[in-house]
Amino acid sequence: MTEVDVAVNLLWLAPGRVGGSEQYLVRQLAGLPNDGAIAPRLLCQRTFKTAHADLAARYPTEVWPLQRDWRGARVGAEHTWLAARVRKADVVHHGGGTVPVAAHRPILLTIHDLQYLTYPEYFSTARRTYLRWMVPRSVRRAAVVAVPSAFVRATVIDAFRVAAERVVVVPHGVPDATAVDAPAIESVRRRLGLGTRPYLVYPAITHPHKGHAALVEMMTVVDGDLALVFSGGIGAAEADVMSAVGDRGLAGRVIRTGRVPDADRDALIAGAAALVFPSEYEGFGAPLVEAMMLGTPIVSSGQPAVREVVGDAAVMVEPGSDGEAWASAVGRALDRRDELVAAGRTRRQQFTLDVSGAALASAYRQAARG
Question: Is the pTM for the entire model greater than 0.70?
Answer without folding.
Answer: yes
